[in-house]
Design a protein that fits this description.
- The complex is a heterodimer of chains A (306) and B (200).
- Chain A is 40% helix and 21% strand.
- Chain A has helices spanning 3-15, 18-21, 28-36, 43-49, 54-63, 67-75, 87-98, 102-114, 130-136, 138-141, 159-170, 223-230, 245-252, 277-281; strands at residues 151-155, 174-180, 186-190, 193-194, 198-205, 211-219, 234-243, 259-264, 270-274, 284-289.
- Chain A has a ten-stranded mixed beta sheet with strand order 2-5-6-1-7-10-9-8-3-4.
- The longest helix of chain A is centred in the first third of the chain and has 13 residues, at 3-15.
- Chain B is of the alpha+beta class and 200 residues long.
- Chain B has a single domain, classed as 2,3-Dihydroxybiphenyl 1,2-Dioxygenase, domain 1 (Roll).
- Chain B has helices at 35-46, 100-108, 123-135, 159-163; strands at residues 2-5, 27-31, 50-57, 64-68, 71-72, 76-84, 87-96, 111-121, 140-146, 151-156, 166-172, 187-191.
- In chain B, a hairpin with a 4-residue loop joins strand 9 and strand 10.
- The relative contact order of chain B is 0.20.
- Classes of the chains: A alpha+beta (306), B alpha+beta (200).
- At the A-B interface, strand 1, helix 11, strand 2, strand 7 and helix 14 of A face strand 1, strand 2, helix 1, strand 8 and helix 4 of B.
């Protein structure tokens, strides 16, 4: 994929991300101007804007060559000011509409490309070759990067009975079982709506590490429920990608991708199921975010009674 | 979280003990209504741009002794296969019925149809697996001889047992004489990294 195409995709994605700019404060107009024409705005305006969407500004600063602009960005205290104001929505609309201008495209494009600067050193600090960024960052690449097979997610009617069959046929004998009641999940959504669903999972791996996650829906209406109703039991999704939370959030904004279901777990990790059914052939692709928190077992149950 | 220890259910004949040591999932087989309609989606959503396509049909060097639910049949299908990360993806479209790909699509829609767990079973291992599966009332949905007799695939109907998909194994047959070219007839390469240029 060419650097230009990456840039175009990043622009499309960024122009839709009004969520990032909805928290602008009373100086939102100055901020919008700064994004579209950084040279025209004095540093003090940026400092006073109190920008919560700090990623945008931080990364503008990383990739702009002018020392003045870099100073402007670094000196801004993004979190210090009160954010809520009546100008928020207006600024968001204004910036979103301006995202179609060439100047905004270039700035927002810099933001996306700059992500890969963390993983790759360059001869010029703070500047990242666009072609290299395209090769290394899933958002810049514009697609879901398969890294290694984490698991196959299989929706079933009877978790225990199916797990027993896996033990008998494939030797998968140890299963970690979690009951995800709706109150244990947060920010749940399905099919574009806030959802209140729950399910039980049993996750087991073979001696060689092939991992299956059996899923039995228990509450509400989720993609798991829908799969059971319309297809019956089956491989609902494949998970082969683990991303940093921020990168996963970026991925969800890609125009090419539709989120079918998302939820956050108590340890802070998230699961996003992209609706790839039509494009790929009847299954979802799950991307999970990394978590640094271990999940200790609540209890250990001995050999299963027959 | 609870931990289930189902070791008591971990019982099988030694001849099929290899099932517990499957090194990796060979591929996910996806039944689709149109292979070619899907490939652009794989390129744009997953960056998967190179595939090998094969049209299996009843012909020497392509598909022989094809069966469907125990009956010898004259069927055909188009497939495209590729490797991604540490596993494979195979898209399958029935082109001459009966095939389980088309029947699956007609019955419940497109979806993951099977998982390949072993591609180099010996004849003896294959016979042992058949016997064990049969003892559990698990039959063969489809089978066929490919690669000029050098290999034979089997789909075991594990849908009820494992959750809606089949297990595939490929038995490597020992031939009295080494086969010549085992590449199937009707094989072609698909490379979506290239772009057609209509300006010339």
């Amino acid at each position: 994929m060419s650097a230009e195409r990456c840039l175009q995709r990043a622009t499309l994605q960024a122009s839709d991300r009004e969520a990032w700019i909805e928290a602008f404060g009373t100086h939102a107009r100055a901020f919008a101007d700064a994004v579209t024409a950084p040279d025209a705005v004095a540093p003090v305006h940026l400092a006073a804007a109190g920008i919560d969407a700090e990623r945008l500004f931080a990364l503008v600063g990383q990739d702009i060559e002018s020392p003045k602009q870099l100073h402007r960005t670094c000196s801004a205290d993004w979190r210090s000011a009160s954010l809520a104001s009546t100008g928020t929505a207006m600024a968001a609309r204004r910036l979103s509409s301006k995202a179609t201008s060439s100047s905004t495209r270039s700035v927002i494009g810099i933001r996306v490309l700059s992500f890969s600067a963390r993983a790759e050193s360059t001869a010029r600090p703070g500047r990242v070759p666009r072609s290299a960024a395209c090769e290394n960052h899933p958002v810049a690449m514009g697609h879901i990067p398969f890294q290694r097979l984490c698991r196959a997610n299989v929706v079933v009617n009877d978790l225990r009975a199916t797990a027993r069959n896996y033990a008998r046929m494939l030797g998968v004998t140890q299963w970690a079982v979690r009951n995800w009641t709706p109150d244990r999940l947060s920010h749940s959504q399905a099919y574009g709506y806030r959802a209140h669903f729950g399910y039980v999972t049993a996750t087991g791996a073979s001696s060689q590490g092939i991992t299956f996650r059996l899923i039995q829906p228990t509450h509400g209406f989720s993609t798991f429920t829908e799969h059971l109703i319309t297809h019956g039991e089956g491989v609902h999704s494949i998970c082969a990608t683990t991303l940093e939370p921020q990168t996963l959030q970026e991925l969800t904004a890609l125009e090419e991708l539709t989120v079918a279901q998302a939820t956050a777990f108590p340890d802070g990790s998230t699961s996003v199921l992209f609706d790839t059914r039509q494009a790929l052939g009847g299954f979802y692709v799950e991307v999970q975010s990394a978590t640094s928190l271990p999940q200790p077992p609540d209890e250990v149950v001995g050999p299963f009674e027959r | 979280m609870r931990l289930w220890d189902l070791s008591n259910d971990d019982q099988r004949p030694d001849a099929v003990a290899w099932l517990t040591r499957i090194p990796k999932i060979g591929h996910f087989g996806v039944a689709v209504s149109s292979v070619m309609d899907k490939l652009p989606g794989y390129a744009s959503l997953l960056g998967v741009e190179r595939w090998t396509g094969v049209h299996f049909r009843t012909a020497p060097g392509s598909l022989e002794r094809s069966t469907f639910k125990g009956q010898k049949v004259d069927n055909a299908w188009l497939l495209a296969i590729t490797d991604v990360a540490d596993f494979g993806l195979e898209l399958l479209q029935g082109t001459r019925e009966p095939t389980d790909y088309r029947q699956t699509v007609d019955r419940i829609g497109e979806g993951i149809h099977h998982i390949l767990v072993r591609r180099d079973l010996s004849d003896a291992e294959g016979r042992a697996l058949h016997a064990w599966m049969e003892s559990m009332q698990i039959g063969v949905v489809m089978s066929g001889v490919v690669r000029a007799g050098a290999a034979e695939f089997f789909y075991f109907d594990t849908r009820a047992a494992l959750g809606g998909y089949l297990l595939e194994v490929i038995v490597s047959h020992t031939l009295p004489e080494p086969p010549g070219d085992t590449n199937p007839v009707g094989r072609f390469e698909l490379d979506f990294t290239t772009r057609g240029d209509l300006s010339r």
